[in-house]
Amino acid sequence: MHIARKRGVNVIGGQKIIAVCAAKVNEDDVQSYLYPLHLALDKNGYKDLVLATTTDLYENNLFDKGEAGIFRLIDSNMIDAVVLFANTLKNDFYIDDIIKCAAKRSCHVIVVDDSREHEGCTNVLFDESDAFYKLVDHLAEKHHFTKINCIAGIKGNSISERREAIYKQVLAEHGIPFEEKRFGYGCFYSYPTKQVMQGFLDDPDGLPEAIVCINDSMAITVCEMLSERGIKVPEQVAVTGFDGIEQEKYNFPRISTCRRDMDRFAQMIADILKKLFDGGQTESCYKFPYTVDYSESCGCKEISEAHVNKSLNLMFDRINDDYRISRSMNNMMAKLANVTDIEQIRRILKFYMNCNSYVCVNKDFHDMNDTEHTYGNSPFTDDMIYSKYFYGTNNVETGRYLRNDLFPDKDMLAGTDSLPFFMPLHDRSNIYGYMILFAVNERREYFSQSIRNAQRFIASLNTSMSTYVQQRTLRMSNDRLNDIQNNIISSFADMVESRDKFTGKHVKRTGEYLKVFSSHLAGLPEYSEVLSDEYRQLMYKAAPLHDIGKIKISDSILNKPGRLTPEEFDVIKTHTIEGAKIIEQTLRNIENNDYIETAEQMALYHHEKWNGTGYPMGLAGEQIPLCARIMAVVDVFDALTSKRVYKDAFSVDKAIDILKESSGSHFEPELVDEFIKIRSKIEKVFEENSD
Hints:
By secondary structure, the chain is an alpha/beta fold. The protein has three domains: 1-124 and 262-287 and 305-475, Rossmann fold (3-Layer(aba) Sandwich); 129-241, 3-Layer(aba) Sandwich (Rossmann fold), CATH 3.40.50.2300; 498-688, Hypothetical protein af1432, CATH 1.10.3210.10. The strands form four sheets. Strands 2, 3, 4, 5, 6, 7, 14, 16, 17, 18, 19 and 20 form a twelve-stranded mixed sheet that branches. Strands 9-8-10-11 form a four-stranded parallel sheet, sandwiched between helices. Helix 3 links the parallel strand 5 and strand 6 (108-113). Helix 6 (190-201) crosses helix 7.
């Protein structure tokens, strides 16, 4: 049993304050939690507010660190309880830190998660096993299918592995042998799923009778691919998913899936909070089951023409709304692009606000170049400056308040039925405030639209204000920054080169190869948007540091003439992680955060492989940053064509043949193809920089 903690209650308008922490609130499935929870909490007499990010914090890059700063607002003595949707965050550090910060304030904490319990909290776990079992069993028991294929998520992922085990269990119970050819990993998203599906479609034994997908996103991709081939769902192939995502509502046919009853779930959370506030006993862990929806894609419901028409109309309305909002945001950003002071920003904003909101910035906002507010260094000042924008008015009210109070106008918070969203204002990892926007709650669809619009507005404002901060900082320190950066990079490159006569030339050549190769790729439509002139310059400047981690490797291993032992190779592998650490620790005071991030990515991920078998993270496909995928090609090419202590140099022809053989496994196929197309330019670099 879990005994509720006692604490002093801080109230606004007689209501206890519940902080709801959620990531990626721009996603429909995350929004599906918030509306019913808001209604349930309001029914119980509580006032909720949402501390939100637009990313799931998985990458933990500089932008993610800035986003995560919003969760530090739970330090406020205004908060009575925290509801943490840990299942939306993909970074355990921030989950644990939120819990730790809440505990310091003696706040009650309810953690919603998919897999693990959190000590000292009231846990609500989504119990998927029974529902997923019923769904898979349904295909064998009700439809009598025996050729049942499965597309799992990521190999080694706990959620995927649990569902894989259930799939195999159902097959065994029905006397259906498991066949490797009927199983593949779709990595939870479209591109790998299509690769798995291609294998299924090419099976000489014919089409499967059913395809079990670990999530709805992959199920939707499967339906699309089958439709493109003229294969009917469910008449020829039945398809199932899992999760009940928002996108499934617009799919044709509707997916047979497992979903959560969010209204019932929300009331469960509200009831647990009531027990906690009343000083009663609660369980340490509650399990909330999924429900099974046997729908159109398995043949249990007829495909509804009315559903198709309704879906098309909803999609049209959403696209129209997206266009309207995007046009407005583009106009706003164009006007904000060249502002020189905060007052100009305020005057522009009042013409583009479509909801009541507050912009709250640190008191030293005007001196951000001389201060540092990051997640670990008190992201917000004790005193805050606010600007109040109310929709339909021309007045902009400004003033000061205490950050511990969270809100400049407590009476306004108490008097509104709208749900306030607190979202961070930051320039990458440097946090300078937050914005409070109110999402209307008249109807569920209006609520979701309000959140989407608010998220786009905050993203546009964040970009614009970051530009303002960067421009101001750049004007003050550009020359100093360039000198420091170039000197450090040069010193690092010299350190790598000093280890032996081979590595140093490698560093220089890979940089030149990358420069030529990335310039070629920038001329192609599929890469032109990412490979801007600025980004290519960052890659070229960062390239000399991709092997900086080898400084940490002993000479006896680094320069060993013979074959490395498995233990020695494990040591070699650490140079990627050590390199990223060196870059972060040594260059973090350089104000060009884009450069640091690019250098870290190239150092950390240049040994990842397209098929997911590389190191150190085992990333696959487009999970690997483009700069690292490019570096992987030029890095291996130079290693092959260069003499090493353990081998002679290969010819260019031999090196090209090896790249071809590794296309699609080690390297992105498109990159190999394009690299070969510029062979003459590569050979010129090779000749000019030979040992």
